[in-house]
Every structure is written in C-alpha cells, then in structure tokens.
Amino acid sequence: MLTYNTMMVIYKAAPIAIIAILIALFWISRMLCGKNSQTSSTVTPQRLIEFSMEELRQATNNFDLDNNHLGFGCYGLVYTGLIGDRIVAIKREWLHLQPRFLDEVSYMSKIQHENLVNLIGYCCEEGNQLLVFEYMVKGNVRDYLGDSSDFTFKKRISVALDAAKGLLHLHNLDPPVQHKRFRTGKVLLDADLNAKVSDAGMLGLLQDRDLRLLNPRGGLEETIDVYSFGLFLLELITGEKPGLLQSTFEIMQWILLRRSTNTLLDDNMPGTFTNQSLEAYMKITIECLTYPAIDRPKMDMVVTELETIYQNEVINEEHEVALGSELFNITIQ
C-alpha cells in the first residue's frame, strides 16, 4: 500500500510530468515539420502558399465531416475548402507525421503540369501536415462513368489523351517518376471535362505504408504505369472494371467474350464514332496490357496514337456511324 508521503509526491509530480510530456510533443511536432531540426529540410517549397492551420479550419468550417468531407484517400481525409473565392481540395494526414514533409512538398511543387492535379499550398503547423490541391468539380472518372449520360466516345478519347499526357510528363522527368497507383479513380475532371492525374509524386509521403499495387507488377519502372493505363482505357470504353489480367490470353479472352455478346461497349456511351477509331483504340489498349512487359509501348507512343484517334474523330464528326452497329477486328502481332 502506498504511504501518505508517497501519494503526496505523486500528486505533486503528476502536473510537472504532464507539462513535460506536452512540451516534448510540441517540439517533436515542430521538428517533424522541418523547423528547428538539423535533419529536416531547410528549403521552403517554392511557388506554393504556406497556409496556417486557422486558415484551413475556416476554409473547411472546422473540417466539417457533414458538409465539407469529400472522402478518404491514401494520405488521409479529404475536404473541400473555400479560400477567398477559390474552392480547393485539402488532404489531411491521418496516420503519422512525416519527418521529410517539406522535402516532399518541395519536390511536388517542381513537377507541376497542366495534366496533373497541381498542389497549391500546404500547412505544417500545430502537429498537422496538410496538402492543398486545386479542386476538380466533376470528380473522378470512375464515378463519372456511372453517373453521366453525355460521355461520348470523343470525350472519352479526350480524357484518355489528357491522362496519358500527365503520365508522360512524369516519365519524362529527370529522373523519371512513376505513378504506380494509377487507375480511373486517380483521373479527375474539371467543369469542361479536362482530365488531370491526381496524387502524382506522392509516393515519398506514403513510403511507410502498404502500397499494394492495383495491377500485377509484370515489369519494371514505367511499364507498370503503362499496364495500369491499359486497364484504364479498357474501363473507359466498357464502363466495367476489368480486374487483373495477367496474360495476353486473359486479355483477349476478356475482350472477345464481350465482343461476341455485343456487350464490349458501355451502354451509357451516346453518340457516334468511326469503326477505324474504335479499332485503333482497342489496338493501343491491348498493347498497353501485353505480356511480356518489355513489349508494352512507351507513353509517348500512347499519346501519339490517342492524338491520331482524336483527330480522326474531329475530322469525321459530321459522319454518322451507329453506335455498336459493326463488330471490329483486333489483331495481335
């Protein structure tokens, strides 16, 4: 049993211990945000806005889960916010603070592109790490496929071309950057259906987490992104998630089964298209998915092919070709 004197010592020491713990946590949070630490970055990210926590609280109505919550992503909770007259998307860290947060944010600020969802600013304050991105009002392609009734073949080609240019930009960086988590949910749309790839360059912030790829590795470096882009193209034209296709045989079996039952094309796709464009689209889709991985095209070739298909649709826009009225031939060399 504790004596009276012992209890009094504990009673008097407890507040001091609590204060000491709070002070320690405060300094740890400052160190993890790159302040007062010799091992943290001393470089302030360029071309970005450094927001205060109070600004982001006001922008999100104190991170209102009912009205401002967009979803839950790999980095944490995602909110909409209003800063001035601009709507933004704010991602808030939910697992643990990253000691190299400012380094990674600085890096992300240098890889911006018109076909990437660009970082606007950040906050590293009060033990919080948040990222502020431009807001894409139409959401992601996966959701848009299910909700839209005006997503024509031509518009889908345009979206695919935008996304391909985003990946090409990453692959052309020095050193090259691979997305490694690309899928339809990572392609976001603005009010005019311009597409941008999200979460580009974020692997450094996620390196301590379980990044299970949504496609078989099947290759190294950018071949993984090319394979994922092939799945994206297939889902974009069919409206259906194809799952993992781990051989050329499985790919052809999946396509030909739907072709034979006239269910390959998305029922929600209105309008017309040329058979030539559809054949070219399926050809580049299969090439992106092909095995072995070394035979997959580079993203610059994918961009070129999609540009040709898009221009062909522009030229033939006035021609009427009934949707799904003809079967098309696919040949694998």
TrEMBL record:
Its main location: membrane. Residues 64-309 form the Protein kinase domain. It is found in: Cell membrane. PROSITE patterns: PROTEIN_KINASE_ATP, PROTEIN_KINASE_DOM. This is non-specific serine/threonine protein kinase. ATP binds at residue 91. It is a single-pass membrane protein. GO terms for cellular component: plasma membrane. GO terms for molecular function: ATP binding; protein serine/threonine kinase activity. Pfam families: PK_Tyr_Ser-Thr. It is an enzyme of class 2 (transferase). It catalyses: L-seryl-[protein] + ATP = O-phospho-L-seryl-[protein] + ADP + H(+); L-threonyl-[protein] + ATP = O-phospho-L-threonyl-[protein] + ADP + H(+). Its EC number is 2.7.11.1. InterPro entries: Kinase-like_dom_sf, PERK1-13-like, Prot_kinase_dom, Protein_kinase_ATP_BS, Ser-Thr/Tyr_kinase_cat_dom. The keyword Repressor does not apply. Keywords: ATP-binding, Cell membrane, Kinase, Membrane, Nucleotide-binding, Serine/threonine-protein kinase, Transferase, Transmembrane, Transmembrane helix. The chain crosses the membrane at residues 9-28.
